[in-house]
Design a protein that fits this description.
By secondary structure, the protein is an all-alpha fold. Helix content is about 65%, strand content about 0%. The chain is built from 16 helices and no strands. Helix 8 runs antiparallel to helix 10, helix 10 runs antiparallel to helix 11 and helix 12 packs across helix 13. The longest helix has about 30 residues.
């Protein structure tokens, strides 16, 4: 896998990149077939919860299959479900996009995200009704409310995740990155509000430090760690500058998250500019006075830098986590290529089938 990826051209511009450039050629047929095969199960699950938008399914199934093509289908399905949970949370926070017909106040959003973090931290051993101080801010509390549907699905997901043997070792890392991811989403909401009020955005560095978490790649990758990770051999020894295995794992995921965030910003630039949301290109244009084309060139170059940089921490992982490290690599390459050609929002099952 690594040698195959090394032979891929650096993702320099969209003209040289196709939707599937991030998937090794030898794996493409298998990835597309597996993504189509899991689609019905994920679709049946989504149909139970109106808060989850069906137009997200095909893109998520493809992305997670490209991430873990040789994992058990049940693992890919569960990772896809988590990705759809995050999409649904993002839709409720994204008051400018109009994906859902509900508007929450900032205070309600804060309570909602705090609730979800507590549910994950409990390992699925609590429900939303166990937190009356948080949910009392909502005028309606019933199973039809999108935020309640997400809470119920998240509780169920965490219970099922705990059944994997690896969760006994790695669930805490997932819970940490779930919290970091949701906090980063809320930070972006605050930044967007501040820009509308004051015209100020964060610095490029501040934005990327936050954006590598808000993109939610580490969140999904850490859930995969709790599903496919293996115990570490007692003879494994860390190399500087990593003092613990967890700091090494964090570096793998956050480096990957940086690449994916930058690629996503190229794809979503125009939409986010119109919505007055922070975006790396827009920040560069505002702070450095460069054109959109110049900003895109800077972002592409940095994205490529992170694509190369991720190989070092991945190479330092213990052998027992090499399969998981391969998943993080695959997710990053796939996402960086995909986002240079299209978004996930409008990708249908028919479009997925047509890629075969």
């Amino acid at each position: 896998m690594a040698s195959d990826l090394e032979q891929q051209q650096t993702l320099k511009n969209a003209l040289a990149v196709s939707e599937l450039s991030g998937i090794p050629t030898v794996d493409r047929a298998h990835v597309l077939q597996t993504a189509l095969s899991i689609y019905p199960e994920v679709e049946n699950w989504v149909a139970q919860f109106p808060a989850f938008l069906p137009q997200r399914i095909a893109g998520v199934c493809l992305a997670l299959t490209a991430t873990a093509p040789y994992a058990k289908p049940s693992v890919i399905v569960k990772a896809s479900i988590l990705s759809l949970i995050i999409c649904a949370v993002d839709d409720l926070l994204d008051i400018t996009e109009g994906f859902v017909n509900i508007r929450l106040t900032v205070e309600q959003m804060e309570a909602m995200l705090t609730l979800y973090v507590k549910l994950v931290q409990s390992g699925g051993n609590s429900t939303y009704r166990d937190y009356p101080d948080l949910i009392q801010i909502f005028p309606a509390i019933n199973e039809s409310q999108p935020w309640v549907q997400i809470a119920n699905v998240l509780t169920k997901f965490c219970r099922e995740l705990q059944k994997f043997p690896a969760a006994a070792i790695y669930y805490g890392i997932f819970a940490k990155h779930f919290k970091l991811g949701l906090e980063a989403m809320l930070t972006e909401l605050y930044w967007s509000q501040a820009f509308k009020e004051t015209g100020n955005y964060p610095t490029y560095e501040q934005y990327l430090l936050n954006g590598r978490k808000s993109i939610a790649a580490p969140l999904v990758q850490s859930s995969l760690l709790a599903m496919v990770g293996e115990p570490v051999d007692c003879e494994f020894s860390l190399k500087p500058p990593y003092s613990t295995l967890e700091t090494l794992i964090d570096e793998v995921m956050l480096t990957c998250g940086s690449s994916i965030r930058l690629a996503n910003d190229i794809c979503s630039f125009e939409r986010e500019r119109q919505a007055q949301k922070p975006n790396s290109l827009l920040i560069l244009m505002l702070t450095q006075g460069c054109s959109q084309k110049e900003a895109e060139a800077i972002v592409l170059k940095e994205m490529d830098t992170y694509l190369q940089k991720m190989e070092e921490p991945i190479s330092l992982l213990p052998l027992s986590l090499s399969a998981w490290g391969d998943c993080t690599r695959r997710m990053t390459w796939f996402s960086c290529a995909w986002y240079q050609t299209r978004e996930f929002h409008d990708f249908t099952k028919q479009m997925l089938a047509a890629l075969r």
